[in-house]
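Need tokens for this chain, all 121 residues.
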Amino acid sequence: MDGHAWLAFANLTGESVLYRWHAGRFVSHQPLGGPGAREFAVVQTAQDLYLVKINFIHGTPAAPKTDLKSCIYQWKQGQLAVIEEFPTSGGTDAAAFAADGQLYLAVSNSLTGISGSERTP
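Here are the structure tokens for all 121 residues:
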């Protein structure tokens, strides 16, 4: 986009970041929230570019929180802007596909919607 190469880094334990290639290396361009991110998926239409961030888990193995919000960003004026959030539960992957003139997003969830306070020992 915009004549640059980009790298979206999903960070499970810290801030996810969008990097831009500049002067022979990737430089930080925009924070993308965190922690909890596991996967990014790029979706490009004829008019727009979207980045889907899939969140996996917050907390610790002893007190996990898997019922999280993942989000869809849209590229606008050199930045990614959140345009929609949706629930995921231990989300691990996403893929977009077109069928019958419609664009669909498939998301895989790997864990049940539990939080540390709801777990039983």
